[in-house]
Amino acid sequence: MNTRTKQISILGSTGSIGVNALNVVRSFPDQFRLKYLSAHSQADLLIEQAREFSPAAVVISDEHQYETVKDALPGTEVLKGRAGLLDLASRDDIDIMLNGLVGSAGMEPTIRCIQAGVDVALSNKESLVMAGELINNMLTEKGVNLFPVDSEHSAIWQCLVGEAPEDIKRLVITGSGGPFRATPVAAFKDITVAQALKHPNWAMGRKITIDSATMMNKGLEVIEAYWLFHLPVDKIDIVIHPQSIIHSMVEFVDGSVKAQMGLPDMKIPIQYALTYPRHFPQTWEQLDLTKIGALTFEEPDFNKFKCLQLAFDALEGGGSLPVVLNVANEEAVYRFLKGNIPFTAIPELITKAMNTHDFLEHPDLDDILALEKWTQAFIQRS
Amino acid sequence: MNTRTKQISILGSTGSIGVNALNVVRSFPDQFRLKYLSAHSQADLLIEQAREFSPAAVVISDEHQYETVKDALPGTEVLKGRAGLLDLASRDDIDIMLNGLVGSAGMEPTIRCIQAGVDVALSNKESLVMAGELINNMLTEKGVNLFPVDSEHSAIWQCLVGEAPEDIKRLVITGSGGPFRATPVAAFKDITVAQALKHPNWAMGRKITIDSATMMNKGLEVIEAYWLFHLPVDKIDIVIHPQSIIHSMVEFVDGSVKAQMGLPDMKIPIQYALTYPRHFPQTWEQLDLTKIGALTFEEPDFNKFKCLQLAFDALEGGGSLPVVLNVANEEAVYRFLKGNIPFTAIPELITKAMNTHDFLEHPDLDDILALEKWTQAFIQRS
């Protein structure tokens, strides 16, 4: 284990990634010092977390709850709103920031953190989907590390430890196929919100659970893997693996395949991103393959899961397409969750936005933020 | 890839490991220079190999064929018999020796090679089973590397690249369970040589195929893993995996499990032992999990496969027990292959030899060689 305590910041501390990350910090009090916390709107939980870990500063994004948090935490610096979040993300007196924010709102904090020269443990896949080129250039320039937290990317990262990048033949990202793997496409139009929120293996937030149901999540992961591992699209494959035990694989040029496995639980990848290059001991439930029975594998169905095809189209088209893909998806998912549009409208709206927007080959941060606004408005009025 | 050509020696070049190793050398003529070859008795194939690769010297162990080989290879140094083999194994003007010899006869060449300061790619598992303690001490003293060639140990080795040994929770060695995985133990006494030679997944030599049928092979692999990876017995587990796709696994202390996979073919581990730490490109048949269907896992049955239990007993008892286990098994397997004893007599004879021999806590090389002779004689007259 490390001898030096790591100073850590957790954005999105009241979400499912954040709560798991706090468990890691709680398990290894000598290894981590929790310096900053941010929450969107769950003021009560944020206050409870701050009382336990005594961070130097916290952010509550929802400005209506600022006074409540401020009053509850005398002696703690309390910031508010988007400006407070970006301020906290820009601070350079920490070793690592875990970005557990949901959606495109997480992109700018990632960029601020890299600009501050601080390593990022990235759960917010939208950061790389929307600004992969910008972020990779910044990482090189600043000499900053970006550690994946997504279970699939953590699996690939773990399989690549000690290996030469030139020896990679392809990455194989596994996906459970979600709740509608075996549902005929003709029934997709009648899928309800409650059905889409029932993921067979993973307990996650609402937005990502819908993304798993449409398989957009797998598509976003392909785009994320593209930027994280610097491989062309044709070296990134998807395999459906309904049991979610093999979290992803790397095939090397000699035909050797390495896989990382575990029970479907975010605890391991979250902890590994914070303890890399070491594994820290935990006694949580262990994988026992003799109890799992069989691991099975299928080809993905791109005709049925149109969002998956759209993600590959956006990655191949490049430029501004992944920005529009991601923001349009986000807005369409929120409209679906509100009961506003049917399940099948999600890929339809995304396609429309991708086809309508003004394409940019190399969008800069201002372009991306402008496109985000345009796409949000476009989907809201479509 | 390496820029410098590796000088290589292959012991057992006409066996299944040796032939595969020569294919690797053939694939990468700029990377390898084949300097020495040894064969037991297949003079014709040895001559053909020597004509293709022009080694500086060859050994034919069978002295009756010495003149044939010598006459066929003018200008090549030709050695003969056990003395010739040990001479060749002691030469220090090579970078790596692949030991593809079968059985306990392979142990001394491994030791000679390490004493000469040359790295060993070890397929001969009997070397470590019989002289693990001696060999490990010598490796440290000489600063020599020992690279595993067995698919299981290669898998573990590949999973450990870049990892800290202290982070290992346990090794999980997979085994197909062999041809009699589903055979009731009551039928074991009637198992014929032909039945035992039909392995479901792997094409291998006769001795190791019988060892797979008794599961002694898995037991020897546990002992080999013990010496290779420096872990206590209780951190080495066996899981039955009939498809032989996952070649073995490592579980880390955080619950993360890494597995190495591939089609059941020795090509990959043989090549990796010669190209480590790199993977060299090959176009042989690739693993496609969607074609495999399901990967399944079971607990091993120690009551049915008594040889497996004997191997754990020998490892736990330590000292001279693994020497006797291994030699007794070898002789008993040869008696079974000759139709001399029934399948079920194999573990019975081994047990008798283990119980009868004079136990030594730390046998030296002379002790081991004397025990080998004693055990051979004991099994032959039992």
Task: Please describe the topology of this protein.
The structure is a homodimer of 382-residue chains.
Chain A: E1 6-11, H1 16-27, E2 32-39, H2 43-53, E3 57-60, H3 66-72, E4 77-80, H4 81-89, E5 96-99, H5 107-115, E6 119-122, H6 126-142, E7 146-148, H7 151-160, E8 168-175, H8 193-196, H9 206-214, H10 216-229, E9 236-240, E10 246-252, E11 257-261, H11 267-275, H12 289-292, E12 294-296, H13 306-317, H14 321-337, H15 345-356, H16 365-381
Parallel strand pairs in A: 1-2, 1-5, 2-3, 3-4, 5-6, 6-7, 8-9
Antiparallel strand pairs in A: 8-10, 10-11
Helix pairs in contact in A: 1-11, 2-3, 4-5, 5-6, 6-10, 6-14, 9-14, 10-13, 13-15, 14-15, 14-16
What labels describe this entry?
globular; 16 helices; 382 residues; alpha/beta; homodimer; Rossmann fold
Computed over alpha carbons, the radius of gyration of chain A is 20 Å
Specify the structural class of chain A. Answer: alpha/beta
- The figure for the number of domains of chain A is 2
Tell me the greatest interface: A-B, 51 and 51 residues
Number of strands of chain A: 12
Mean pLDDT of chain A equals 96
Backbone shape of chain A: globular
| Biggest pleated sheet of chain A | 7 strands, parallel
- Uncertain runs of chain A are none
Question: Could you tell me how far the N terminus lies from the C terminus of chain A, measured between alpha carbons in angstroms?
Answer: 53 Å
| Lateral strand order in the biggest sheet of chain A | 4-3-2-1-5-6-7
Compute the number of helices of chain A: 16
Helix content of chain A: 40-55%
Approximate strand percentage of chain A: 15-25%
H/E series of chain A, N to C? Answer: EHEHEHEHEHEHEHEHHHEEEHHEHHHH
